[in-house]
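Both lines are retained for reference:
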Amino acid sequence: MRTTYQLALVVGTIFLMAISVSQFAYAQGKVNVDEGPIPEKDWMVKVPGAELSEDHSKVKTWITKWYGPDGNYENNGGFPASAPKDLIDEGTNGKLTQISLSTVAGLQLTQTVDMAWKGGNGGTRKWTVYEIDPANTNNMTRGGPGDNIDMYGLIVIDAPEDMKAVMSPAHDDHAQIWINGEKWYNNPTWTGHVQQVDFNVRVDLQKGANVLLYRVGESGGDDYFNLHFDDATHDAVKIYPDKAKDQKSFFDEIAGVLSVDPVGKLTTTWGDLKRNR
């Protein structure tokens, strides 16, 4: 009887472990990009690897709150024309760039530097917190035009230690992602559906504040962007904006996170920022 019980216990444990591993694998997806940040010479080259076409519609950790300009860049001439351009540099006259914006120093500068695109491209944009519906195939629009636009969104990821994470983006059309001053993702091909993922990208997070900048350029049709990480990362980190609804409350809730001096590219980037002011 005892032997039968022990056997049942072992079988049950293995079954539960199999379910756990299966659920983790589903939530994370197959990691098919693991080469580290993109070298400068390949910044505009499509992320390597075969497209996975994974359905992540059952994932519950899609990020819904973002910090960024309160409106999109308009009349971009189509995403193939706009994608190589640094629209952050253009809108701030060099005080910020896409790379520097993806650092703590650059993020902090948004408190005093607004976007000043030309009138035909949306004009002056303030920085604020906005919320998206991950199931909405037009969640980029935010009340403005849906065609020929570029969208920018920022989050701060507070990590308890240096760690690896798996990043899963869904988007339409051309997406680019920077973390802590490094470019990690470039894909000029839409993923096919608002919650479909083609590339699960392993990225590096540092202890403390990590700034992620997500840019998507759109030409016509559906306009969406989405992002989530693997379950282990979502369990370990805190992602901001959380409860914030505007710029002030966003910086209030990340004040403690930003108090730790970041590492990596901050020193170089801060020097660049000072020279450009």
